[in-house]
Amino acid sequence: MQSRYSVLFVCLGNICRSPTAHGVFQHLVSQQGLSGIVEVDSAGTAAFHVGAKPDHRSIKVASERGYDLKRLRARKVQSEDFHRYDYILAMDNENLRNLQEIMPDNPKARLQLFLEHSEQQRFSEVPDPYYGGARGFDLVLDLIEDASGGLLREIHQRLQQD
Ligand code: 4NP
């Protein structure tokens, strides 16, 4: 019987893709009245930006769609996160490989690519937008909005079965 779920989004730096997923998913969770029931967090596999705010380009495109990322701060993912979270969701295959390397025995978390929850079929990874232009940040948001809807539908179903 499980009445609460926790979700950790992971990318490389925790300043572009995973904080965007954090903000979008948190927004959906609040909108559906599930704030006390579904916990949301994000982290990076690298430590370059620990303590930093999300990238200003991510903050901007997210705010244009009504999501507030300004209060988020980067942290590095830890092995212990596998015992704390129900879902650990990687943005790309490199993130997934790095997470598999630190995954402890008997994890609580289900580790998968975030876009496994997506409706669209074209992308299986959320492309790293860091060295690209503004359109990359819009694509990140499109993919994240799509997969967030799918993930929340799955969690809703699991909450109803419990
Ligand atoms: P993120 O993007 O993994 O989506 O946060 C990146 C942020 C920083 C760097 C690379 C990707 N970097 O090389 O500093």
TrEMBL record:
Its EC number is 3.1.3.48. Residues 5-154 form the Phosphotyrosine protein phosphatase I domain. The keyword Hydrolase applies. Pfam families: LMWPc. The keyword Hydrolase applies. InterPro entries: LMW_PTPase (IPR050438), Ptyr_pPase (IPR023485), Ptyr_pPase_sf (IPR036196), Tyr_phospatase_low_mol_wt (IPR017867). Keywords: Hydrolase, Protein phosphatase. GO terms for molecular function: protein tyrosine phosphatase activity. The active site is at residues 11, 17, 128. Belongs to the low molecular weight phosphotyrosine protein phosphatase family. This is protein-tyrosine-phosphatase. It comes from Motiliproteus coralliicola.
